[in-house]
């Protein structure tokens, strides 16, 4: 795909420029410090709530889900899909990002999924839909019986946007997501993803039918332009179809510290999640 959703002609860019357009780590020099801080807070949360961790929802080694039930089984549940450009990351590394909504009495669920190259994009998306099928059937047995909202960060934001179409989901919040896969195939990311033309057509949220459910689309104003442009383009497409939900530019946030606003009970993205149910 030569042109992206905002009209950038990728044929005019070198391979190094295309790679840099999606290299979040290089764009945020202290990203490892931010990650380590979040991993430490997530480890503390998991140690304090060991009772419903590592529950299998499928046969794969990464087909596991961590559940954090609220005191009220009827409370909403935030299903959070981790990022890592579909080939890294893990559910256990970001558990603390639901601290904000859990402080308001919500439940939380953190699924894992098979990563590329062990799974292609079709397989990854299929596992996300299987997670939601499993939650619809089994979550109540684990004390989670409320409405399901799905959120995700980076690649998880892409998957959250697709998961909004699942009948069990009432609303979604993709954060710093990739919503057009065409340019991704022209970067280092495709060495493991091996995206096909069919993958790009079927699994790019910017090419799919608009889902009419509420969707808050968030990005940091200090993020890479490719991710900012995708978020703005997806919101514009939804607004043109009269689909509900705000565009949430988080001032001065980068690709990694934007998740701080989910860890805080009064954080911008925490409040936005609460608003999705109002």
Which features would summarize this protein structure in a list?
278 residues, alpha/beta, Rossmann fold, 6-stranded mixed sheet, two-stranded parallel sheet, 11 helices, 8 strands, 14% strand, globular
CATH class: Alpha Beta
The gross shape turns out to be: globular
Please provide the count of β strands.
Answer: 8
Question: N-to-C terminal Cα separation, in Å?
Answer: 39 Å
Looking at CATH, which topology would you report?
Rossmann fold
Radius of gyration: 17 Å
Structural class determined from secondary elements: alpha/beta
Roughly what fraction of the amino acids lie in strands?
Answer: 5-15%
> Can you tell me the CATH architecture?
3-Layer(aba) Sandwich
The run of helices and strands is: HHHEEEHEHEHEHHEHEHH
Main beta sheet: 6 strands, mixed
Query: What is the helix tally?
Result: 11
Count of all domains = 1
Walk me through the structure:
The protein has 278 residues and is of the alpha/beta class. The chain has one domain (10-276): Alpha/Beta hydrolase fold, catalytic domain (Rossmann fold). It has helices at residues 15-20, 24-27, 31-48, 99-102, 121-138, 155-163, 190-193, 197-203, 225-240, 260-263, 268-276; strands at residues 55-56, 64-68, 77-81, 107-111, 148-153, 169-175, 217-220, 247-250. The strands form two sheets. It has a six-stranded mixed beta sheet. A two-stranded parallel ribbon has the order 7-8. The protein is globular.
């Amino acid at each position: 795909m030569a042109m992206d959703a905002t009209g950038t002609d990728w044929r005019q860019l070198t391979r190094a420029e295309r790679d840099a357009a999606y290299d979040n780590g290089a764009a945020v020099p202290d990203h490892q410090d931010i990650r380590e801080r979040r991993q430490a807070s997530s480890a503390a949360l998991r140690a304090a709530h060991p009772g419903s961790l590592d529950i299998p929802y499928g046969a794969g080694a990464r087909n596991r889900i961590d559940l954090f039930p609220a005191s009220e089984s009827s409370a909403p549940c935030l299903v959070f899909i981790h990022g890592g450009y579909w080939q890294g990351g893990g559910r256990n590394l970001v558990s603390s990002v639901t601290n904000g909504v859990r402080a308001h009495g919500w439940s939380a669920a953190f699924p894992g999924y098979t990563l590329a190259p062990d799974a292609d994009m079709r397989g990854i998306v299929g596992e996300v839909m299987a997670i939601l099928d499993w939650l619809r059937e089994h979550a109540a047995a684990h004390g989670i019986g409320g409405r399901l909202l799905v959120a995700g960060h980076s690649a998880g934001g892409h998957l959250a946007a697709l998961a909004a179409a699942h009948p069990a989901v009432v609303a979604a919040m993709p954060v710093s997501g990739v919503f057009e896969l065409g340019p991704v195939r022209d970067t280092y990311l495709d060495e493991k993803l091996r995206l096909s033309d069919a993958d790009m057509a079927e699994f790019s949220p910017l090419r799919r039918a608009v889902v009419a459910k509420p969707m808050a689309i968030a990005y940091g104003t200090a993020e890479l332009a490719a991710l900012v442009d995708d978020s703005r383009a997806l919101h514009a497409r939804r607004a043109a179809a009269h689909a509900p939900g705000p565009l949430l530019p988080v001032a001065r946030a980068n690709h990694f510290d934007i998740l701080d606003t989910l860890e805080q009970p009064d954080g911008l993205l925490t409040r936005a999640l609460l608003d999705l149910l109002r």
